[in-house]
Write a structure and sequence with these properties.
The complex is a heterodimer. In chain A, about 0% of the residues lie in helices and about 50% in strands. Chain A is mainly beta. In chain B, strands 2, 4, 5, 6, 9, 10 and 11 form a 7-stranded mixed beta sheet that branches. Chain B has a 4-stranded antiparallel beta sheet with strand order 1-3-8-7, with no helix packed on it. The chains are: A mainly beta, B mainly beta.
């Protein structure tokens, strides 16, 4: 059974940093691209970032580019999201999700974690 | 700035058929955008329904179907059931490693 377990969420002040983790099990992590999607309270889903299986290709939404960094440790079956210069509008539940193959094609997310809440507030 | 559009809300009677759409603020949605659809109930993680326009994800009943209708992607639910009452999101692949979600449609079954 595919399991994705996010952790690392919490309360942080504007301008601060936070690192999220997503522990993966039940599938061959090294064979799958991974992504982060967030959802602000009462709002819709927003795609944040994606990384291919090798970690050699990474892409970001304009809203987080230059502030967030996606990475992965295939030896630990873990996906990360380093978030710097956090803003109030980054407050959201952050979901990790897997893609079905090594690269981004066929461009969809097949399994999702339960999410971790990040609150940016003074 | 590309905006992906969805109906904010829709209602359907039990047993009825409903079609939700996913468009672009400028231009037409085609299969080249690899539209996919996700269902989310309050407090839960999204569930994958449809990918690559019209392929059902594993375990999704065949009363959910995807298509291109005119210049939009579409999700059709045939024989709606009470537990289909959820938020539905489409997402389009814009190329260059970028996805954009629609704002979601809140479906009521009553």
């Amino acid at each position: 059974e595919v399991q994705l377990l996010e952790s690392g969420g919490g309360l942080v002040q504007p301008g601060g940093s936070l690192s999220l983790s997503c522990a993966a099990s039940g599938f061959t992590f090294v064979n799958c691209a991974m992504t982060w999607v967030r959802q602000a309270p009462g709002k819709g889903l927003e795609w944040v970032s994606v990384i291919n299986a090798s970690g050699g290709s990474r892409f970001y939404a304009d809203s987080v580019k230059g502030r967030f960094t996606i990475s992965r440790d295939n030896s630990k079956n873990t996906l990360y999201l380093q978030m710097n210069s956090l803003r109030v509008e980054d407050t959201a539940v952050y979901y990790c999700a897997k893609l079905p193959f090594l690269e981004l094609s066929p461009y969809y997310f097949d399994y999702w974690g339960q999410g971790t809440l990040v609150t940016v507030s003074s | 700035q590309t905006v992906v559009t969805q109906e904010p809300s829709f209602s359907v009677s039990p047993g009825g058929t409903v079609t939700l759409t996913c468009g672009l603020s400028s231009g037409s949605v085609s299969t080249s955008y690899y539209p996919s659809w996700y269902q989310q109930t309050p407090g839960q993680a999204p569930r994958t329904l449809i990918y690559s326009t019209n392929t059902r994800s594993f375990g999704v009943p065949d009363r959910f179907s995807g298509s291109i209708l005119g210049n939009k992607a579409a999700l059709t639910i045939t024989g709606a059931q009470a537990d289909d009452e959820s938020d539905y999101y489409c997402v389009l692949y814009m190329g260059s490693g970028i996805w954009v979600f629609g704002g979601g449609t809140k479906l009521t079954v009553l």
